[in-house]
Amino acid sequence: MQYKALCTDIDGTLLNSLRDLSPRLIASINKLPEEFPVILASSRMPDAMRHLLHDLNRSPQALVAYNGGYVLSSKGEILEDVFISVDLVAVILALTKKTGIHVSLYHGENWYEEKDDYWSQREVTNTKTNYIWKSSEEVIQHWEKEHLGAHKVMCMGDSNEINWLFGELHLLHSLDLHLYRSSQTYLEIAPKKISKATGLKKILEHEYDFGLSEVIAFGDNYNDIDLLQSVGWGVAVANAKPEVKAVAKEITSHHKEDGVAEVLEKLF
User: Which residues does residue 41 pair with via DSSP β-bridges, in sequence order?
Assistant: First the structure.
């Protein structure tokens, strides 16, 4: 089949060992037709994705941010806006107060931090974005006033404490929350009723005259499973979780070995 769009995860899939775009990947993307959509789908905030599209010479482009909770068209229109209620965010914060877990709060274009420490600086380095300095109490008050919530809550810390938090939230709120373990020290929390697949579908319906079956997608982690299952050709990188590989139609090389570029060179 001749695929008409590319949708890919970023961390652990598209980026290399330096958390950057390799020259080989950039070259493979640049060989695609100028009008060929390259849609990034990530748990990242929009600004942590835009600089990558710029480096790929694909800006502007539609974005699936926060695992599908915040979806933007290529013109910046908001196509999906689903967030965790402020009351539930307060519950998560109350649980973490008993621990040493670092919590980052995200809504739309904004990332809020109340600590400048190892974890916040690691995210600044990894995503090339900056946060707004504000206490979680102030963020909650602002969201209550404006009837907003969190597109993502990022919890980082000791693996045993992250395990405990995952268990508590899964037991109490599994019907309301997606809980993603992107690593042993990270827990990413999103609304239950969204996914990268639902976000991609919104973009295709809004901007294009073809469907999911004509898209090739790449991923590595649990939050990529729906995406790889929904598209015409789902590809897992070699470092993907076993559950992701199980639903993929193809397994390519490790993300550190240009697995995405390898498939693009073959198909296009």
Answer: 64
- Per the CB < 8 A criterion, the answer to whether 247 and 234 are in contact is yes
Q: What is the pLDDT along the chain (268 residues), one digit of tens a residue?
A: 689 999 999 999 999 999 999 999 999 999 999 999 999 999 999 999 999 999 999 989 999 999 999 999 999 999 999 999 999 999 999 999 989 999 999 999 999 999 899 999 999 999 999 999 999 999 999 999 999 999 999 999 999 999 999 999 999 999 999 999 888 999 999 999 899 999 999 999 999 999 999 999 999 999 999 999 999 999 999 999 999 999 999 999 999 999 999 999 998 8
What does pTM read for this prediction? 0.95
Question: What is the CB-side half-sphere exposure of residue 195 using CA atoms within 13 A?
Answer: 14
List, as one string, the DSSP characters of the chain: ----EEEE--TTTTS-TTSS--HHHHHHHHTS-TTS-EEEE-SS-THHHHHHHHHTT--S--EEEGGGTEEE-TT--EEEE--EEHHHHHHHHHHHTTS--EEEEEETTEEEES--SHHHHHHHHHH----EE--HHHHHHHHHHHT-EESEEEEES-HHHHHHHHHHHHHHHTTTEEEEEEETTEEEEEETT--HHHHHHHHHHHH-S--GGGEEEEE-SGGGHHHHHHSSEEEE-TTS-HHHHHH-SEE---GGGTHHHHHHHHH-
